[in-house]
Amino acid sequence: MCFGVACAGMVRAPAHTAQDRAGWKALQSIVAPRAVYLRTRDSILNILELTALVGLVSVAAGFLGALTGLGGGVVITPAMVLLLGIDLHYAMGATLISVIATSSGAAAAYVREGFSNIRIGMFLEIATTVGAVCGAFAAAKISPSILGVIFGLVLLHSAWVSTRARPAPRPGETDDPLATRLRLNGSFPTPEGLRSYKVSHVKTGFSLMFVAGALSGLLGIGSGALKVVAMDRAMRIPFKVSTTTSNFMIGVTAAASAGVYLNRGYIDPGLTMPVVLGVLGGSVLGARLLPGAPTMTLRRIFGVVVGVLAIEMIYNAIAGKL
Amino acid sequence: MRPPLTDREVDEIIGGLLRYGVMLAASVVAAGGIWYLIQYGTSLPGYHVFRGEPEYLRHLRGIVSGVPGFHCRRVIQFGLVLLIATPVARVAFSVVAFVLQRDRTYVAITAIVLAVLLFSLTGRMSG
User: What is the value of pTM for the model shown?
Assistant: First the structure.
């Protein structure tokens, strides 16, 4: 591999600061074995090599994201920041755009299959887009350290969600008059024919969607996990409809923050190119292999990876390294 | 009389719009990307410190003006803008579809979403 030489040049001892105390060092040796990391900060990687590395990370993230149904976007930013030393804002910009690509690509299939509910999606998108614009504005005002901690907490939530089994359907949902008025209640195809469902707690779901949108704009992620929680847990929408409708909404939510990111100069074409193409390629590959994949095992692996990245992210944020 | 567009037909059209939008955008990004790597592949990247993109890569006018000359970074950026435009086009189409279905509530709801998107994309919110 051509990276062999380059990697050898990049490996270095961790930088010690005045903060380093025994406790910190012990913690660092557990959570942050810096020496194995490839960092552009002091590297001799050229653009071609960096593009290939970022592309590989993105293919892996897109692949795992599609296989586990969790969206790989959330892992790309921490991977770029922690492994490659790329600035948080550039990483967020690149990831946000890749989120639009995968969401639109996957939504195209789901919409045709009749799972996603366009009315629910559209109505909740009012909350997510307004939230996303607010979040994207806030991203410029908040320091990278605080962004990193929030990012880590969101990652922890994703890790927790991914290791849980799919919740069982709950029969006998209560009806919300608002859902009837907005004609949110729908039906979806099952092997036994169309099954209809009712939507509850519309206001709670709407508020949670604002939070999901704000986090999406703040961190440059799709925040699919929180969207699913809002629909599946709060609004009692069937899981399959929740996940596909969430996927459908992610692209629109991300597009709302993308304008702000673009105008702020967070979106670098050279860096975003391998992320977008890599994630798209990986997710197409993942979707092909999906039937017959050991989903639960993959979700656990994904959960562990995300959990490690979460701790790394929070540690680096608190240590002021972002 | 049959309604102008059923929900099912709207789903089909939206599905196609998203699929071809992403394919078109990805092709443009890939074309610009190959050219970019040929031109700058051996240069050193500077992504570890945030400087922000130059003005011409931040706004539609600057990005589009570099496309005819095949300025590689602007071509990639143009592809990314196409990608951002895909869900926006989807929402715009939904407004039309709901108008044709005479669903006033949803015409209003989708119009609000479209307005927020256009506000974000066109506003110079660099503050």
Answer: 0.85
